[in-house]
């Protein structure tokens, strides 16, 4: 068989792609440091400028207890946050005043802790409408909830309210829906919302999510698609980067998103303004730094990929311990926090059985640049 230059290049590209989709069994990278040792999976960590630390427990290992906690690094003790009552939900509870299932948490650019509540009791279960899905804002000075944004008018029974990012210059926030593919624009002043890019190729997942070289399946045996998931706002507020969990990072100028909030005609043709940005793999979480570099975790081969502002991807680190790194975080010490949550080994993707192997870890690595001011305080 004769190989042309093109066919050889294609073969090498396919080989590299297949290699990247396999679990990594190489050596530990000495740059990766253990920050926290946990007994249960945490899929999100955030810090305040004065050193306070908040964790979100995913509870995919079958464990019970508070979802959002403050972690004391001196004693390794955790405290339900903002309190035990908010972290306790039963069938008779008011859905609007309790965290039903928190999917993400982060300190915002305003210094408050923002909690994204899916509003459904379990993965794949119907959303409790209209009061279940919400965005809860906690003042970390008073340790009290200062505002709740109801999201029932922006979600469906099969929605999975996933994550949130902010554009302080315009007064808007953007959320992803990983269950009913779309982006949600939130007016932070009024609380009004608009769903955009509904079932668009940039928010839909054409392939199931994959981890450790295997396609994930739901409890009924069907392949697991996780739609619009990760998102980041550029440090100048001009671009929103977003993707489904199976990868394929797109971007759109925020001015079109913001204008479409008031202009239904523009909202209908918004797909004309989005563009491909980077050919990313199945992803657990992302982060963005002050220089507009995006960091993407590869759930298949335990890598963190760095994407430069021009869309070029490079390898930051690869380490076998980075098992499903979820929502990453950049602190003021220029460290990238990487919670290795092992989510693919949890009950939602293994017919109710947990294969999570404790202890679990949150790792850090020095990246030489701090966070975007638009991302968090």
TrEMBL record:
* Compartment(s) where it occurs, according to its Swiss-Prot or TrEMBL record: Secreted
Q: Which UniProt keywords are present, listed alphabetically?
A: Secreted, Signal
Primary subcellular site in the record, as a coarse category: secreted
What does the entry list under GO cellular component?
Answer: extracellular region
The record's Gene3D superfamilies line, in alphabetical order, gives: TolB, C-terminal domain (2.120.10.30)
Xref: InterPro entries: 6-blade_b-propeller_TolB-like, MRJP/yellow-related
Q: Name one Pfam family in it.
A: MRJP
Q: Where is the signal peptide?
A: 1-21
The record's family statement is: Belongs to the major royal jelly protein family.
Name of the featured protein: Major royal jelly protein
